[in-house]
Specification:
By secondary structure, the chain is α/β, with parallel strands linked by helices. It has a domain of about 170 residues: 3-Layer(aba) Sandwich (Carbamate kinase). Helices cover about 35% and strands about 25% of the residues. It has twelve helices and 20 strands. The strands form five sheets. It has an eight-stranded mixed beta sheet with strand order 3-6-2-1-9-11-12-10, sandwiched between helices. α2 packs antiparallel against α3. The longest helix has 25 residues. The protein is globular, with a radius of gyration of 23 Å. The two termini are about 45 Å apart. The protein binds adenosine-5'-diphosphate, aspartic acid and magnesium ion. The site of magnesium ion has 3 residues, from loops.
Length: about 400
């Protein structure tokens, strides 16, 4: 007998037919004699709809009340899935985050799981119940409901698998695994049989939505092997694990992130300490900076440009405008949100020259201009015009995989 954690995303439980489809997957595993803990997301677009509803009442609602509202999406789906399993004649219990023992930090909308008190889940498993847990939510030290940030149910599932030392952690979704690019956008994307934690973490962080990056971080930390597979089609999925002796693929995937803003400060004083002062101002406001470029100095001035998450763009501009003493009276601060970050990820590029230039050649062939570039051992990212983003992904993907 094994303990299996299964996570089903929003599209997997979007309507009654899909709920019963999921109930069948769960009961099949249960019938094989396994203990089953299931984590579910809110149905379909429920979370987006709840956000719209909130905005229509108060666009500046507090994060506490947002979490109260958004957690309702998962409350509905756990109950409905449990009802479907009851109807199939199996013992089942649904639990909200706090009932399942999810204790989090107090940061509403972006809480982190501190620990899971697993007693309740264990008690239910001892009673031979299938346990259905609401993903994406927990409780903080004020006994308030918190949520983990968008896509957080993946992290809930991995956290349970780690806390309960599960034998298997399956992430069921609406595609058959992790592909070399978003299979909905790039029809000839290839499904990967296996991918390392590090590569998956980069892909997830750089925009491949299929797994939440924090879930991958946690899987790596606790050495939880993940299986990403389809809830709609029976086929082998993708294994995410620490792969030590596997042949390293040159490139394991291409990712796109449109949630980016570029901030340029034109004509700042070309003096020591400028970068330090600018970026510590931003850090103090918790604004994460990604790609940075700085021009060569000219006549005592230079330009600095950097990217931040789109939602932080206005705040970054405001902070800089408020600190003229740092950037100088005449510097211009410009924000551009019509940009996208396109990245290639692959452990193989560490030992192969020319990977970046192949990517740049693909962009040149497609006549797409590169605004910024950044690289690390296993990734290359470029910033380009947002309108070119899908074309760029296809062009780069074809260059490496066709
Ligand atoms: P869920 O609701 O199951 O959590 P998500 O919508 O969060 O599912 O993630 C699955 C989606 O991720 C897919 O439908 C696919 O369009 C997208 N995606 C982006 N990049 C990739 C990739 N490299 N491999 C697989 N899917 C990807
Ligand atoms: N329902 C939440 C969201 O839409 C959590 C999740 O789907 O993982 O972000
Ligand atoms: Mg998801």
């Amino acid at each position: 007998m094994s303990l299996i954690v299964q996570k089903f995303g929003g599209s997997s439980v979007a309507d009654n037919e899909r709920i019963f489809n999921v109930a069948n997957i769960i009961t099949r595993a249960y019938n094989q004699g396994n203990d089953i803990v299931v984590v579910v997301s809110a149905q379909g677009d429920t979370t987006d709809e709840l956000i719209e509803k909130a905005v229509s009442i108060n666009p500046n609602a507090s994060r506490r009340e947002m979490d109260m509202l958004l957690s309702a999406g998962e409350q509905m789906s756990v109950a409905l899935l449990a009802m479907a399993i009851e109807k199939l004649g199996y013992p089942v219990v649904s639990l909200l985050g706090w009932q399942a023992g999810f204790e989090t930090t107090s940061t509403y909308s972006a809480a982190r799981i501190k620990r899971i008190r697993t007693d309740r889940i264990k008690k239910e498993l001892d009673k031979k119940n299938i346990v259905i847990v609401a993903g994406f939510q927990g409780i903080n030290r004020f006994d308030d409901i918190t949520t983990l940030g968008r896509g957080g149910s993946d992290t809930s599932a991995v956290a349970i698998a780690a806390a309960m030392k599960a034998d298997l952690c399956q992430i069921y979704t609406d595609v058959e695994g992790v592909y070399t690019a978003d299979p909905r956008k790039v029809p000839n994307a290839v499904k990967l049989e296996v991918i390392s934690y590090d590569e998956m973490l980069e892909l997830a962080t750089l925009g491949a939505q299929v797994l939440n990056n924090r879930s991958v971080e946690m899987a790596k930390k606790y050495d939880i092997e993940l299986e990403v597979l389809s809830s709609l089609k029976q086929s082998s999925g993708t294994i995410v694990k620490e792969n030590t002796n596997m042949e390293k693929m040159l490139i394991s995937g291409v990712a796109k992130d449109c949630n980016v803003a570029r901030i340029s400060i034109i004509g700042v004083p070309d003096r020591p300490g400028l970068a330090f002062k600018v970026f510590s101002l931003l850090a103090r406001k918790d604004i994460n900076v990604d790609i940075i470029i700085q021009s060569v100095g000219r006549e005592g001035e230079k330009d600095i440009a950097f990217t931040v998450a789109a939602g932080k763009g206005d705040e970054a501009v405001r902070v800089l405008e408020e600190h003229r003493a740092v950037i100088g009276e005449t510097a211009r601060v410009i924000k551009d949100e019509d940009v996208a970050k396109i990245s290639i990820v692959g452990a193989g590029m560490e030992s192969h020259a020319g990977v970046a230039s192949t990517m740049f050649e693909a962009l040149y062939d497609a006549q797409i201009n590169i605004q910024m570039i950044t690289t690390s051992e296993i990734k290359v990212s470029v910033l380009i015009d947002k309108d070119d983003a899908d074309r760029a992904v296809s062009a780069i993907h074809s260059k490496f995989f066709d």
